[in-house]
Every structure is written in structure tokens, then in C-alpha cells.
Amino acid sequence: MYQQMIFVNLATNDVEASKKFFTELGYTINPQFSTDDCASVVISDTIVAMLLSRSHYANFTKKEIVDSAKSSEVLVCLSAESRAKVDELVDKAIAAGGTASGETQDHGFMYGRAFDDLDGHTWEVMWMDPAAVQG
């Protein structure tokens, strides 16, 4: 059965540093789709982050590339299987050189935290109680 995938393309100032950062979070780099200008970070079977050098990213758009340390263009939100997994991933990101972003969101049935990666892209990590979403 076909599963649609998402490839999130983000500009990075340092491909090698980004590879190290995301592998420290527990993700893998797919060497088949990685070069000196691009890192293919496998987040799951259906989610891949393509971290492109700014010059390589510019090949895909005529728009100005934002400085993600100063401006927000996208918030990437990843689900987690538990509250503890939310904390684990965000704590790993901070230990790997990322920074905490925003306040912890605790609504009882939903819990989330966020971090900014080395380039300032914001990654939200969220858990929701499955019982709260069953209709």
C-alpha cells in the first residue's frame, strides 16, 4: 500500500554540523541522497528532512532565503509516543547544541515542547493522549 511521504527542505549554514546534530538526536543520514551540499535525515519511514547548504537550496527557489535565526518561515511539528519521549528528544536537542524554544505546553491530554536547531529552525515535539482523539 502506498504511503505518502513528506520531505522537509531546510537551508543550513553547515551541512556537516547539521548531520552531527541530527544523528545525536538518534536519526540516521541516508548516504544515497546526501552530498557535501545536502544531508538526507531519516526521521521515520515517511518523513525525511533534507538539509541543504544555502547555495544548494537557492537552486530550488527564486525567493529570498530567510535567516532562520531571525525569522520564522515554518514550524515543524513531530509527534512523540509519550510525554517522556517529548522530553527525551528535546533534551537531546539542547544537549547537542540546539536551544529551547517557547514554553512547555501542558494541557493534560496534550503535551509539547520545542527546540531550535543549529540554524534556528523550530522543531515542535508533541504528544497527545490517544483516548482524547478517539471519536
What would you say this structure looks like, in words?
- A hairpin with an 8-residue loop joins strand 2 and strand 3 (38-42).
- The protein is built from four helices and nine strands, in the order E-H-E-E-E-H-E-H-E-E-E-E-H.
- With 135 residues, the protein is an alpha+beta fold.
- Helix content is 23%, strand content 33%.
- Strands 5, 6, 7, 8 and 9 form a five-stranded mixed sheet that branches.
- It is globular, with a radius of gyration of 15 Å.
Features:
135 residues; alpha+beta; 4 helices
Summarize the structure.
With 135 residues, the chain is an alpha+beta fold. The chain is built from 4 helices and 9 strands; from the N terminus they run βαβββαβαββββα.
Q: What level of helicity do the residues show? A: 10-25%
Low-confidence stretches: none
Mean pLDDT: 96
Total strands: 9
What is the chains' assembly state?
single chain
- How would you classify the helix and strand content by structural class? alpha+beta
List the total number of helices: 4
Rg to the nearest angstrom?
15 Å
- Tell me the β content: 25-35%
Tell me the span between the first and last alpha carbons: 25 Å
